[in-house]
Amino acid sequence: MARLWLHIGAPKSATTTLQRFLTNHRDQLSAKGLTYVSPQGRTSSNPVAVAINRTRTAEIAALSADLGRQINSADGDCIISSEMFFGIPPGALKQVLTDMTPETTQVIVYLRRQDIYLEAKYMQKVKNGRFAGSIHDYIKKFDGSGADYMSVLSPWMDEGYTVQARILEDSKMVGGSVISDLMAVCGLDQQPDEAVEQEAANRSPSLERLQLLQILKTLGVKKINRIQRSLPQSSGPKAKFFTAEERGQILAQYAACNAALHKQFFAHLDDVFDESDLDELDTPENQAFSQAQLAEIESVMRAVL
Measuring CA to CA, which of 73, 83, 143, 181 is 20 to 30 A from 121? Predict the structure, then answer.
């Protein structure tokens, strides 16, 4: 029986890298028995999640018909990917993916240590112009934003689905790459013939860049995500926001979750996540631009606008 591999994220866990790979190698993967299914050949199945979340009945029906045709005509297994499926319960997705049953479907999810995950989610919101404020404001507003992984995965297991949880750390992935790891999980011993480099497909901006985008947000500029995409990649180091002490506090908050993950999925590992870097006691610079500089920049931006 052909399998349906359902890649549900988690968000900010190399999903863009995987989706680009699956899109760019559709023909090669299909020849090896793995068909990448997505609405109208898109890079991801994010439109499915949007239609479900916004209760677009007609769109849900159209997407269901489109994806159903692709699955039924595939020769071998199928894989569907959207980080926006993370947190959507099985019953809601069943509206669109009618072939999704516990007998035929395996759920794949890549997980990052919670402090790293929260930083990445916050940076994504800021660079897309969807949040203005500190990372602590973000965590308070979104109540952890899905960092309690077991609460997200439990509904799938309760419904009888097999969940393949993976850790997004080089030492814990087959071949040290999220691409080679996914191929191994899906039963492909070899990658497509073309050499693949795992690129930073969705590279995080520097702290300076984020501060400037936040100013634009406060000034009411629209479509900040387009501005961000039009800029060259940040030349500065990736922004970091938590001190080592704060990282330890976050991991303590999710200790019960991670203990449950360890028992359910990773009993063969000593620990779920690598925490060795916490000993470095790295303290990020909380202000790339000083308050005086930010005020001056904001005055100039306001005058330009």
Answer: 181
Rounded to whole angstroms, how far apart are CA atoms 127 and 217? Answer: 10
Q: Quote the CA–CA distance of 49 and 55 in Å, as a whole number.
A: 10
Cα–Cα distance between 149 and 118 in angstroms, integer?
A: 12
Residue 133, both tokens: 């404020």
Q: Residues 275, 251: contact at Cβ < 8 Å?
A: yes
- Give the model's pLDDT for residue 100: 94
Q: Which two tokens stand for residue 13?
A: 């866990």
Tell me the C-alpha distance between 121 and 83, whole Å.
12
> Looking at residues 262-270, what average pLDDT do you find?
96
- Longest CA pairwise span in the chain (Å): 64
Residue 175: count of CB within 10 angstroms of its CB: 13
Q: Decide if pLDDT at 190 tops 70.
A: no
Look at residue 241 and tell me whether its pLDDT is greater than 80. yes
Q: Are 32 and 110 in contact (CB under 8 A)?
A: no
